[in-house]
Amino acid sequence: MLPQLFKHPDYAEDQPSAHTILTIHCLHRGFTAGTIIGLASPFARIAFTTILRRPSPALPLPWTARLLSSAAIGSLGGTAVTGVGMVARMWGRDEIEWQDRSWRILANKTQNREDDWSAGGIVIGAMALGLATRRGAGVGLPLGKASLGGAAVGSLLGTVGHVLTSSNSVEEVENKVIAGEGPLAHEAKR
Asked: The pTM is what?
């Protein structure tokens, strides 16, 4: 997604739009991470009520709607938390640090492939749930929440799809880091 939108120069200090690239990347990752937490919350609620042996109050929505609603809320929360975290982490940093991080994101082919899969999942999920809701075959949620929940679940499924079809093994990545190659090589030198 990002390499198609932004050019990747030969040197990090020449990277344009560094703030925009890093912000988009962090918010996108937060959207997916928040979805994971959001999807886990209904199960956690059931587990806690079972452990405490308290009857769970009747919930007005069916399971599918509850999961989509939780995914939608979680994705927004994850995006917000990641945005605040990025600002806190990068506050007062020099421009070259923004450029270096952005340049490394664009140089990381595995990360770019994951971004593409996740972005595709967002579009497909939002469209599928949005169209289903508009046609009356939705899950009992308003159009906006159903579309956001579909986008959130699509993002997560895109990430899972990338992981399942990825050709990079852990050993290949570790070998590149040890040899001083690849996008993680700078971490091994510290």
From this structure: 0.79
